[in-house]
Amino acid sequence: MLNFSKCGLAALFAATAMPAFAADIYEPVPEPTPPQVVYQEVSTGGWYLRGDLDYHWSKFRGGDYITYGGAVPIPGTNSFDFGKLKGAMSLGAGVGYQVNNYFRTDLTADYWFKSDFNGQTSDLVTVSTDTSSYSALLLLANAYVDLGTYNRITPYVGAGIGGARVKWDDLRNQFPGVDDRHKGVASWRFAYALMAGASYCLTKNLHFDAGYRFTRIDGGRMFEYADSSAGGPGAGPGFDRGFNVHEVRGGLRYQFGAGKAECGEPEMVAYEPPAVEPVYK
Asked: What is the domain partition of the chain in residue ranges?
């Protein structure tokens, strides 16, 4: 009986001491998992200025003029047999905004220096030569898509819409015994353009731009009526049907602000999301 009591007391002591002993055992705090580092692209937006130099070739799309004939002058319509325009230089400038690494817009103004015109008109009796020249001020609002940067080179495509003030010099119309002069006309016309090219990163703020631009200019008044030097009414007024202009362009763009940190792929920076505190239950 005594032995049974001693064994019972020992068991009861062990049972009551176990929780207290277990509570004294150290439980390590779990280490929080470090957040995964992700990368985000840095925008290179900002204002820029540009300056351009080009050489362009204009295609004369045809012309028409009023003619008079008979004892009582009756107007009719005739057309140039052909007309050709020589190439010329131009200078341009603009201001734009780089929205992000892939899209930008700008406003540009280009002055096209004089392109010499040589044409021919004829009827059943005579063939005449016609000479003049035209210059233009081209104003465009443009948008471009930059197609990524590869070894400092960024190809792009773009389009523009606006207007052109075309100024014709006096037209000289000559055939045997006749030397007429028609006063040239200046007028505003609708214009649009399509572009493609590439820019080369010289520094993080300065880029060299080279490309091609096709410009279409609507038709308009070309010259006025003139009295014939041979007596009687001469032809006029005249109208051109517009131009298709092909341009080879080169220039510089200077972007204000930070620009790109590197002349290469768009800059990527590490971004660490905020750490999440572990929850213990």
From this structure: 43-270
Which pLDDT band holds residue 94 (cuts at 50, 70, 90)? very high
DSSP 227: B
**Tokens 């207007």 label which residue?**
163
For 8-67, write each residue's pLDDT tens digit. 555 555 555 555 544 455 556 666 665 565 555 555 679 999 999 999 999 999 999 988
Task: Please check the confidence at residue 233 and state whether its pLDDT lies above 60.
Answer: no
- Residue 248 or residue 28, greater confidence: 248
- Closest by CA to 233, choosing from 91, 19, 71, is 71
109-127: buried (b, 16+ CB within 10 Å) or exposed (e) per residue?
A: ebebebbebebebeeeeee
pLDDT given at position 236: 81
Contacts of 153 (CB under 8 A, 6+ apart): 198, 199, 200, 201
Closest CA to 102 of 53, 63, 149: 149
- The residue among 254, 209, 253, 245 whose CA lies nearest residue 55 is 245
pTM over 0.85: no
Say which CATH class 43-270 falls into: mainly beta
Listing DSSP states for 31-81 in one string gives: PPPPPPPEEEEPP--EEEEEEEEEEEEEEE--EEEEEEETTTTEEEEEE-S
Q: Name the token pair of 185.
A: 């006309």
Long-range contacts: 66-69, Cβ < 8 Å, 24+? 66/225, 66/235, 66/236, 66/237, 66/238, 67/123, 67/235, 68/232, 68/233, 68/234, 68/235
